[in-house]
Amino acid sequence: MQIPFSKYQGTGNDFIIIDHRSPKIEHTDVDLIQQLCDRKFGIGADGLILLEEELGFHFRMVYFNADGRESSMCGNGGRCIVAFAKKIGLITQMASFIAIDGPHEAKIKEDWVELKMQKVDSVQQSGDHYVLNTGSPHFVKFVPNKLAVNVFEEGRAIRQSSPYQKEGINVNFVERLGQGIDVQTYERGVEDETLSCGTGVTAAAIAFAIDQQLTGQIEVPVQTKGGGLTVKLNRADSFTDVWLCGPATFVFEGKIVI
Hints:
Layout lengths: L1 E9 L2 E7 L10 H8 L9 E6 L6 E7 L9 H13 L6 E6 L2 E8 L2 E5 L6 E4 L2 E5 L3 E6 L8 H9 L10 E8 L2 E8 L4 E3 L3 H14 L4 E9 L2 E9 L3 E9 L1 E9 L1
């Protein structure tokens, strides 16, 4: 069987996206999904995204990490599937879709996508780090110099430590840059550093707002190894009206035989 696919990237976080309104892949086929994401034996990507039908929404987003398992929300993936939905004529400038963490809204203009994330009510602070969930669980640690951090080794050590070993956690190392931040992320499921992580960038921006004692309407410019993003949010009793904003770029399309 031949399966058409498209490849997209959002600040270097890359995804295979498949129009799955006519199902072709079993959600439980871990081996196949791993193979598709494999950079030597497959198409190669940080994850696979299926666009499926959902009553009352433009579509449903189903996301799998490169380890082949269905995962929690992916912010850059959410922005990329919106760009894909526009490309296939499913939306024009606005989108409403549902993902594993609930409903999302999005706006798209050319290759710039703004994705509304879930509100965040709880942030745990302990010593030099924060733990919070922005659709996926994140550990956020501020560092004085990102160049001094071995993201793979230090990130893996935290991800595999006893509090997080079973469920996993994404680990973000954040350097303050004036009014913004620079973020490096080790992602569970990928089990490596990625060039960018949307939910991680969002978590880091929220931690930065706490760190800097910012309230009200906040806009945080974020630099990742894959490029620049912006997080907009409102802080009062909780973090609401959270938007992850940045490019979502078409790379190539093709067909793969399975």
